[in-house]
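Here is one chain, start to finish.
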Amino acid sequence: MTGRVLAWALVPLGAVLPFVLGSPYALQLASLVVIYGGLMVALNLCFGYGGLVSVAHGGMFGAGAYATGVLMTTHQWNFWATLPVAAVLGCAMGGLLGLLTLRMHGHYFVIASLAFGLMAQLVLSRWTAVTGGELGLGPIPTYSGLPGVSFESPTARYLLAFGFLVVFCGVSALVVRSPLGRRLAAIKQNGRLADALGIDPVRTRLAALLISSAMAALAGSVYAPYIGFLDPSAGGIDLNFKTGLALIIGGGGTALGPVIGAAVHVLLPEALRGAQEYSVLALGVVLLVVIRFAPHGVAGTLRRLLVERERPAPEPEAEEEKVSTNA
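Its structure:
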């Protein structure tokens, strides 16, 4: 509860951030953190709260990005009109993944989701008539405006992406606190006991996977007009692994973990711009350090420290009364 309250308390800070940052470069990095934060929130719903280690959410992110990019570029659709298409596409991919793999357990599900992610990347790279293949897709128009609102400026684009992130966090919080979220937590803690209590693990996890997949695809939709150009790496297997590792570092199953993970995912490679080939190695080193000293991730460790700090100190034991005897 403490971490969730702290996360929502940071929303005003995120809203005023573009007015505080002094350079367009810093604002661009903040915008990418916010966009990838949406993907992390979607992954966190399955991985952090549901215990489903998915290596396919990057493919859903890429599918949503390409759906919006193709419709806006080739068919001149409005950005807002592409969102339902992306969400339905994400749900379809999540439903197919769930129906094929959710009866598998442990590393079998991880391997199956990895294969699904590889197939998504192959479709993006080989379906050249639609996606452009390795040559990419672009230029993609920027976000369509609303009545009285324009998204031409970098600040407006950041606030739009930030608004989507807040919505994703709100949906995730509602799911976690709903009966579906409680069933999901019970399955994560002890699947056999939950099954014995009448909780259907396949149906419960499928529902969570559908919601998570739709959010991942919508995050991709926000990404496409912002970046203006797409290639298959937007939904590649590299993205799957890096976002999963970054979420573990940030803290799965927490409210702040996805945002911290997104910051690691965006800022760490940027800090190593002169040595991009070592970015994965650096991510692995950070992961090892976090697992050693903060096994619950950065956000999980901070939450535990706050809880322990707020916990009242135990009352001192009452001193035993000494009974004096008269000599």
